[in-house]
Structures are given as structure tokens and as C-alpha cells.
């Protein structure tokens, strides 16, 4: 059995950010990765995917974008290279092909069993991120076998789908972008939209992320009564293009049929809730509050900005509540219904009734066990690249103190 001070599970942006912070503190550690560095970006992203945040906001501890297009948006393969170069730059101790089978705490130390190695360590950082396992609603099992189904994580491009129309279920960032791409390829697309949140790509002369970063909004701390509910909030309706805003109205005007939340299925029949007006109104109120907050800060700080653009509230016609997919020529259903975090290998009592890790800013009730990379972990931007890096820097302090105390006890 090998020994180290800290084991980090996952070599995506969260795991590498923590590794960089521990390396800077000279703390012995290892990063366990089931595949290769940035494995989820390699295996769970469609071909044309771009980051939703501009390149200048891809900041990680000791690392930042140095290319020629800071206001652009990295493509999938570019970001994979970005993370690989980051790992190489500080010599991240990544063990690839080491899928974690079990984590236990038989005594004072944690024991981690993987395909390649068994480790004993004082502390563990779970950095598997927000997007662990695609969530497919139970209604999917009620659809006919003649309907091709796949999660958004398995979608690659329109040409890889069977001929025919497509129903995309879910209108957060992934669902919206996939629906847009498939529609642009010339297919009929129906988009089932439930709860969602939207922002314009640009506002008053700057990318919306410029405002959120400049005004400190990305550093907002969780304020909901149930912190677990915060990281289940839908991702923003954005697209990684500086010249486009993408929302339900844009898709509707382009010819995508927008309906309400998918609520039931029976062979080839899909039923949708009549809640589209309610969910779009809720998103509109949140958007109005955010833009008003930016407007107020501009005035209070005397910032130079363009005039606020005229903006009509989003309005959608009463949508269909029942569609016969076969009759409508829809051959594929893509479930862009989010992810669930699953930790079947974590045999430490830190999971709540929903299966999420209980934590306070990434610190779990189990001494020496931490989690990183979740939405709203410590701030609004915790699931963004930059926010993950900031969280890692702060959490590394807790890890270092814990390891130091363990060393003192062992001396």
C-alpha cells in the first residue's frame, strides 16, 4: 500500500487547481484520474462545444490564458490542451487510468482502492465536479424503442443522429445550444423548457461576464436556506460566441418549437406541462434583477458604459401540451436534463438523502474529507473555471492545516 498526505480524485480543472495549490505548499499528494487529464471534457462534450466564459476568465492558480484572443471562447479541444499544459507546467502528480473503486476510513487514515494502486492518506479531496452522471427521467422508459434516446453528454453532432426531427428536453445551456445546432443543420427541433435562467451575452458594451467579474458578482456567497438547492440551479442560457445571445425567444423566432416542461411519455406520445409562461416569467424576473444590479453599480461607481439596450420581456405563445413524436417525424429525444452526483465508491457517512455530499464551503463533516468543483460551493462562480480556482486556493488552506495537525499527532 502506497502512502501520501492527500489524494485528489479527478484531474479536471478542479482537481488540477487543488494540485497546484498543494504543490505550492509542498504538500505530498497524488491526483487519481479514471481516464486522462480532462477526461470529462474528452468524453462528455459535443464536437462544437465552446466555453461559456471568455478566455480571459479561464484563470486557475498559477495559470491564465496567454493566447491571442482573450475575448474569444475556447473550443473543446483547445480547453483540453489548456488543462493538459497546466498539468505539465507544475508537474501535477496525476495517475491516469486509476478509477476509484472504494474510499473508506478504517482508522486515522483514509484508504483508497483503485484499479492501479491502493493508497493510504490523511486527507481526500473529491474533485469529480458538478457533472458526474447524466440524469435521465423515469418517463424515458415509457417511450417506444423506435425512438432513439441519448443524454446530452452522449451527443456529438447532428450528422451522428438518425434521420428525422429531434426533441431536446431541457433548456439550460447545453439543451439550448444543442437545439440551436441541430436546427441550424436543417432538422425540425422541438425544445421542452422547464426551469431556466438566462443572461444576454453582452450588456452595455461589455461581455456579461466582464460585468459580473468587475462588480464582484461572481464572488457572491451562497445565501439560500438549503445550500444543496443552490448547486441544483440550472446553468445559464449562454453561448460561447461574442456576437450572439441565445435564449428561448431567439430559438422560437428561428423556427424551433418551444414547449413546456416534459412531464409524461407513452410509447410515441410526449406530454408537456402548461408551465412555460410561468417558468419564462420567473427567468425574466431574475434577469431583470441582475441587470438592475449592474445598472445600479455603474451609477454608484461612476463607470463608463454604453446606454442600456431596449429589452422587451420574453413572451411565448401558449405551446402544445401533447405531441405524437412518430406523427411529427421526430426520431430522436435528447435528454439535456442535467446531472446527478453519484458516489457509490464513497463509504464514508457524508451523503445526504439525495446522495449529495454534505459540506460547508467544501469542508465535509468527516475530518480530512473535502469536495471541490460543485455549483455555489463557496461563491456564485464555483462551477466556473475561475471560481473553481479561487475555491481551490481557499480550501487548500484547510487541507494544509489538517495535514499539519496530523503530522504533529504522529510525531
Explained architecture:
- This protein is α/β, with parallel strands linked by helices.
- It folds into two domains: 2-132 and 341-410, FAD/NAD(P)-binding domain (3-Layer(bba) Sandwich), CATH 3.50.50.60; 136-335, FAD/NAD(P)-binding domain (3-Layer(bba) Sandwich).
- It is 28% helix and 20% strand.
- It contains nine helices and 21 strands.
- Strands 1, 2, 3, 4, 5, 6 and 21 form a seven-stranded mixed sheet that branches.
- Strand 12 (202-203) and strand 13 (206-207) form a beta hairpin.
- Helix 1 (13-24) packs parallel to helix 3 (76-90) and helix 1 crosses helix 9 (385-410).
- The chain is globular, with a radius of gyration of 22 Å.
- Mean pLDDT is 93; it is low at 225-229.
Task: Provide the fold topology.
Layout: E1 2-9, H1 13-24, E2 29-32, H2 39-43, H3 76-90, E3 94-95, E4 100-104, E5 110-114, E6 118-126, E7 133-134, E8 148-151, E9 165-169, H4 173-184, E10 189-192, E11 197-198, E12 202-203, E13 206-207, H5 208-214, H6 227-230, E14 236-237, H7 248-254, E15 257-259, E16 262-266, E17 269-272, H8 276-301, E18 322-324, E19 330-335, E20 339-340, E21 369-371, H9 385-410
Parallel strand pairs: 1-2, 1-6, 2-3, 6-21, 8-19, 9-10, 9-19, 10-15, 11-14
Antiparallel strand pairs: 4-5, 5-6, 7-20, 12-13, 16-17, 17-18
Helix pairs in contact: 1-3, 1-9
Amino acid at each position: 500500500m502506497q502512502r501520501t498526505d492527500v489524494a485528489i480524485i479527478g484531474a479536471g480543472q478542479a482537481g488540477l487547481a487543488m494540485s497546484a495549490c498543494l504543490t505550492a505548499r509542498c504538500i505530498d499528494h497524488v491526483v487519481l484520474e479514471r481516464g486522462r487529464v480532462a477526461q470529462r471534457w474528452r468524453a462528455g462534450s459535443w464536437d462544437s462545444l465552446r466555453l461559456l466564459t471568455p478566455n480571459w476568465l479561464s484563470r486557475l492558480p498559477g495559470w491564465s490564458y496567454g493566447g491571442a484572443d482573450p475575448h474569444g471562447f475556447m473550443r473543446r479541444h483547445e480547453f483540453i490542451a489548456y488543462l493538459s499544459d497546466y498539468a505539465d507546467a507544475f508537474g501535477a502528480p496525476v495517475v491516469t487510468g486509476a478509477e476509484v473503486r472504494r474510499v473508506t476510513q478504517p482508522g486515522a487514515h483514509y484508504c483508497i482502492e483503485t484499479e492501479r494502486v491502493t493508497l493510504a492518506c490523511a486527507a481526500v479531496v473529491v474533485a469529480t465536479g458538478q457533472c458526474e452522471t447524466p440524469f435521465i427521467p423515469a418517463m424515458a422508459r415509457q417511450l417506444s424503442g423506435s425512438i432513439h434516446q441519448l443524454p446530452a453528454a452522449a451527443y456529438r453532432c447532428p450528422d451522428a443522429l438518425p434521420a428525422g426531427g429531434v426533441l431536446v428536453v431541457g433548456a439550460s445551456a447545453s439543451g439550448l445550444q444543442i437545439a440551436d445546432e441541430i436546427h441550424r443543420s436543417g432538422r425540425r427541433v422541438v425544445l421542452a423548457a422547464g426551469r431556466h435562467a438566462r443572461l444576454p451575452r453582452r450588456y452595455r458594451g461589455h461581455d456579461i461576464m466582464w460585468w459580473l467579474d468587475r462588480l464582484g458578482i461572481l464572488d457572491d456567497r451562497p445565501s439560500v436556506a438549503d445550500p444543496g438547492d443552490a448547486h441544483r440551479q440550472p446553468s445559464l442560457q449562454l453561448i460561447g460566441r461574442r456576437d450572439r445571445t441565445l435564449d428561448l425567444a431567439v430559438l422560437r423566432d428561428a423556427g424551433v418549437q418551444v414547449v413546456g416542461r416534459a412531464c409524461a411519455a407513452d410509447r410515441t406520445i410526449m406530454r408537456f406541462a402548461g408551465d412555460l409562461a410561468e417558468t419564462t416569467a420567473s427567468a425574466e424576473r431574475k434577469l431583470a434583477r441582475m441587470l438592475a444590479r449592474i445598472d445600479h453599480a455603474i451609477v454608484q461607481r461612476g463607470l463608463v458604459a454604453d446606454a442600456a439596450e431596449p429589452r422587451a420581456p420574453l413572451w411565448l405563445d401558449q405551446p402544445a401540451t401533447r405531441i405524437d413524436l412518430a406523427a411529427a417525424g421526430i426520431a430522436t429525444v435528447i435528454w439535456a436534463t442535467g446531472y446527478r452526483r453519484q458516489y457509490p465508491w464513497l463509504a464514508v457517512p457524508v451523503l445526504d438523502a439525495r446522495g449529495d455530499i454534505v459540506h460547508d464551503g467544501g469542508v465535509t463533516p468527516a475530518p480530512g474529507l473535502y469536495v471541490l468543483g460543485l455549483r455555489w460551493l463557496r461563491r456564485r462562480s464555483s462551477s466556473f473555471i475561475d471560481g473553481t480556482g479561487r475555491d481551490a486556493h481557499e480550501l487548500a488552506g484547510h487541507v494544509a492545516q489538517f495535514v499539519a495537525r496530523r503530522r504533529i499527532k504522529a510525531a
